[in-house]
Design goal:
Length: 467
C-alpha cells in the first residue's frame, strides 16, 4: 500500500509538470484518422501516407535514444516508435515523461519492423489525458475476482478476453433484435415502475413517488403491459430490457437482470417453440459460423428441432417412478410439511434439470404453477407452457396466453386476493386474441454462448455488497 501511495503521489506531481510546460493534463479533442485495426489492415509496404491515431499507452520499452510502446484503443493495439533524432531533444524528453496508462495522440508514417510488426513512427505526439493510477501488473485469480467486478473498468483494460466477452454480449443482443425485426415484430418500451407488480411470482423492490403520494414497484416482468399492447392491435411485439426481483444473489441470479419478452397474436406455445429454435439458431450461426458450441465441456447442438418432453415424462424418466398427476410427486419425495408444488419444484431442480444438457423443451406444467397460461383442452390440470433448458439450466419460459378474463381473475384471486390488476382484467374484457408469449433470460443465454459459469461474469456491473 505504501508503494502504491508513493506512485500516486509521483503521478500527481506530473500534473504540475505538464501544466508548467503549457500542456493541458486533462481534456482535449484529437482528430483521429485511423484506428489501430485500420492501420494494420490497410498497411502497404513503402507507403508514405501519414496516420493519426490515439489511445492509452501500454508496455513502454526504452532503448537509449528510442522508445517502443503500444497504443491501445477500442479496436486493439498498435506499436509506436519514438526516436530522439525525429522528435528532437525537447520532444523526446517530454515523451520520456509519459507513464503507462496515459492517453496520447500520435501522427506519423507506418512501417514494418525487422520482426514483422506494423508500427507507427512518432513524428508528432499530443498529450491528451493523465492516468493518476498505475495499471495493475496482475489482475487474475480467485483472490481478485470481487475486485474485477467492482472495478470492471480495470478488468476490461487488462483482460482482453473480458472485453471480447462483452463485445460478444452486444452482438448476441443485436442478433436477437435483428431476427425479430425481420419477422415483423415491433420493439416497444413499457413501464419500469408499476402500481401492481405482475407477470411473474417474485418479491419486488418498492419505491415511492412523492408527487402522487403512492408506493410503486420496480417491475418483475413486462408481461401484462405487453399483452395490453396485443389487445390494442400491436400483434407482434417484443421488449428487451431490465427486470428487478428483490431476491437472492448467486452464480445464476442477480436482482437486476435483462430479459427478452416476445408476444405474437394468433399463435400458441408450439409456435413459440419454433420461434425459439429459429431465433437462437440464427444468433449462434451468425456468432460462431456453426450451430455447435462448447459449454462446460459439453458440445451443445442448436440444430432444430430440439428435444421435446413433458414434465411428467421427464420426472418418470429421470427418477424411475411413473407419474401422471401432481399427487404422484409424494411417491418420489414424501415430505408432509411441503406442498405438492414445492415437492415438484424440488424434483425438477435436482432430478430433471441437471440432465437437460442439449437444448430441450420441458412442456405441459401443472396449472397451479402457471396462473397466466392457457389450460390444455384435453387435460385442464395442465397448461400449454414450456421452459427450455441448455447445459442443465433454464434459459426461458413460454406459454399459450390465458385470454379468458373470467378465468384470469379467478386465478389472480387464488394467487393473491389483495393484488389483483383490475386494469389488466378490463383489458382482457375488450378481447385478447389467441396469443403465444416467450421470455428469455439474456444473462443466462450469454453465459451459455460464452462458456461462462457465473452470471456476474456476463454483467458489466453485477450487484455486490458494499465494501
Amino acid at each position: 500500500m505504501e508503494e502504491i501511495n508513493e506512485l500516486l503521489e509521483i503521478r500527481r506531481q506530473k500534473i504540475d509538470f505538464w501544466k508548467n510546460k503549457g500542456i493541458l493534463p486533462f481534456g482535449q479533442r484529437y482528430e483521429v484518422t485511423h484506428t489501430s485495426q485500420q492501420i494494420i489492415e490497410e498497411f502497404k509496404e513503402g507507403s508514405e501516407e501519414k496516420v493519426s491515431c490515439a489511445g492509452r499507452l501500454m508496455a513502454i520499452r526504452e532503448h537509449g535514444k528510442s522508445i517502443f510502446a503500444h497504443l491501445k484503443d477500442a479496436q486493439g493495439k498498435i506499436q509506436i516508435y519514438a526516436k530522439k533524432d525525429i522528435l528532437g531533444n525537447e520532444g523526446f524528453s517530454l515523451f520520456k515523461e509519459l507513464d503507462m496508462g496515459d492517453f496520447i495522440g500520435v501522427q506519423g508514417k507506418v512501417f514494418k519492423t525487422y520482426t514483422g510488426e506494423i508500427t507507427v513512427l512518432v513524428e508528432e505526439f499530443t498529450f491528451l489525458a493523465k492516468s493518476l493510477r498505475p495499471l495493475p501488473k496482475e489482475w487474475y485469480g480467485l483472490r481478485d475476482i470481487e475486485s474485477r467486478y467492482r472495478q470492471r473498468y480495470v478488468d476490461l483494460l487488462v483482460n482482453e478476453e473480458v472485453k471480447d466477452l462483452f463485445i460478444n454480449r452486444s452482438k448476441i443482443i443485436k442478433g436477437l433484435k435483428e431476427f425479430l425485426d425481420r419477422q415483423n415484430f415491433l420493439e416497444v418500451e413499457t413501464p419500469m415502475m408499476q402500481a401492481i407488480p405482475g407477470g411473474a411470482i417474485a418479491k419486488p423492490f418498492v419505491t415511492h413517488h412523492n408527487t402522487l403520494g403512492i408506493d410503486l414497484y420496480l417491475r418483475i416482468a413486462p408481461e401484462l403491459y405487453l399483452k395490453r399492447l396485443v389487445v390494442g392491435g400491436l400483434e407482434r411485439v417484443y421488449e428487451l430490457n431490465r427486470n428487478f426481483r428483490n431476491e437472492g444473489i448467486s452464480t445464476r441470479h442477480n436482482p437486476e437482470f435483462t430479459m427478452l419478452e416476445v408476444y405474437q397474436a394468433y399463435a400458441d406455445y408450439t409456435d413459440m417453440m419454433r420461434l425459439t429454435e429459429e431465433l437462437l439458431a440464427s444468433v449462434v450461426q451468425k456468432l460462431f459460423g456453426s450451430l455447435k458450441i462448447t459449454y462446460r465441456d459439453n458440445e451443445i447442438d442448436f440444430t432444430p428441432p430440439w428435444q421435446r418432453i413433458t414434465v411428467y415424462e421427464a420426472i418418470s424418466k429421470y427418477t424411475g417412478v411413473e407419474v401422471t398427476q401432481l399427487e404422484d410427486m409424494r411417491k418420489i419425495l414424501d415430505v408432509q410439511e411441503k406442498s405438492l408444488t414445492e415437492i415438484l419444484n424440488h424434483i425438477l431442480d435436482n432430478k430433471v434439470e441437471p440432465n437437460l444438457i442439449q437444448p430441450t423443451f420441458l412442456m405441459d406444467y401443472p396449472t397451479v404453477l402457471s396462473p397466466l397460461a392457457r389450460q390444455k383442452q384435453n387435460n385442464p390440470e395442465l397448461v400449454e407452457r414450456f421452459e427450455f433448458f441448455i447445459g442443465g439450466q433454464e434459459l426461458g419460459n413460454a406459454y399459450s396466453e390465458l385470454n379468458d378474463p373470467i378465468e384470469q381473475k379467478k386465478r389472480f384471486y387464488e394467487q393473491n386476493p389483495d393484488k389483483i390488476d383490475e386494469d389488466y382484467i378490463e383489458a382482457l374484457e375488450y378481447g385478447l386474441p389467441p396469443c403465444g408469449g416467450l421470455g428469455i433470460g439474456i444473462d443466462r443465454l450469454v453465459m451459455v454462448l460464452t462458456n461462462t459459469t457465473s452470471i456476474r461474469e456476463v454483467m458489466l456491473f453485477p450487484q455486490l455488497r458494499p465494501k
